Amino acid sequence: MTFIDMVEMVDILKRADYDGKYGPYPNVRKAKIMPKVVKSLPRNFGVRRSKEKLWKGWSDLKLREQDQYRRIKRVQKRKKGEKTRDI
Length: 87
Description:
The chain has 87 residues and is mainly alpha-helical.
């Protein structure tokens, strides 16, 4: 998975509160969020991934590849800053 694909995946999962930082969060809700990611990646980047691969990628980013996860968060912060500046 390329860096840009991972940025998109993390963006969607954070917006939908995938990890349940803001309240009770059963697995049923996670199962509803992941199809959004599965649909978004081919639409935006032409990349097809299974739900299982995306779950694994998300888990790996948070637990094993923390430096890359920090890079993704920095990119998202920059994007957010650019959007507010344009207004």
